Amino acid sequence: MSIQLHDGDLPAGLDFGDSVAVDSETMGLNPARDRLCLIQLSAGDGLSHLVQFRDRNYDAPNLKRLLTDPKVTKLFHFARFDVAVFRAYLGVDCTPIYCTKIASKLVRTFTDRHGLKDLCRDLLGIELSKQQQSSDWGADELTAEQLTYAASDVLHLHELRRRLDVMLIREGRMALAESCFRFLPARAALDLGGWDEPDIFAH
Asked: Whole-angstrom Cα distance, residue 102 to residue 2?
């Protein structure tokens, strides 16, 4: 695994191909309150690009261009949260999207374990460490352990997508998954608007 840390934006001219794995680290789990600190990206080639927002300046034109590029699919695990965070802090709607958590819930109905750690273990035989999950991502200088943790969260999403796509096609649920992925920006807007709980789709 290789890591490149960037301050405030991606360098111009980076090519992630037709799909890029994306994740974020924030000060907490409330996107309306807890600021965006770090965005991780990978083309699935063992290299992770980490964009750190130390000064709370979210004017990141290269990053925003990538997140909104209609020719590049953004791969997430639990996209609902990251898409809401990007809307709140970067002011962009991230599309098109693929979410491995949604895909897993649609086809791995034999289990209730759909976390990234679970998917990497069950589908890829890889054990992820989650030790740094609750650390201080707002620090000016991130530790080597934090950087390694953050980078690892995007390294395996391309392979997870390939494995989950086989199952989605096998179970005849690919079209349903794609409909769910297209709805995610609206779901994120509902979350930011205060309609996370109660869910407007509930009785």
From this structure: 28
Tell me how many domains the chain contains: 1
Supply the pTM of this predicted model: 0.94
19 part of a folded domain: yes
* Nearest-angstrom CA–CA distance, 81 and 99: 11
- One-letter-per-residue 3-state SS of 81-97: HHHHHHHHHHCCCCCCE
CATH number at residue 68: 3.30.420.10
Q: Each residue of 80-123: pLDDT tens digit?
A: 999 999 999 999 999 999 999 999 999 999 999 999 999 999 99
Q: Residues 52, 37: contact at Cβ < 8 Å?
A: yes
Give a yes or no: residue 148 inside a domain. yes
- At 46-79, the pLDDT tens digits run 999 999 999 889 999 999 999 999 999 999 999 9
CB 43 within 8 A of CB 154: no
C-alpha distances in Å from residue 178, one per residue of 11, 112, 163, 184: 31, 21, 16, 10
Instruction: Tell me how far CA of residue 127 lies from CA of 95, 104, 105, 156, in angstroms.
Output: 29, 17, 20, 11
Q: Omega before 61 cis (within 30°)?
A: no
| Helix, strand and coil in the chain, % to nearest 5 | 40, 15, 45
Q: How far apart are CA 153 and CA 8, in angstroms?
A: 20
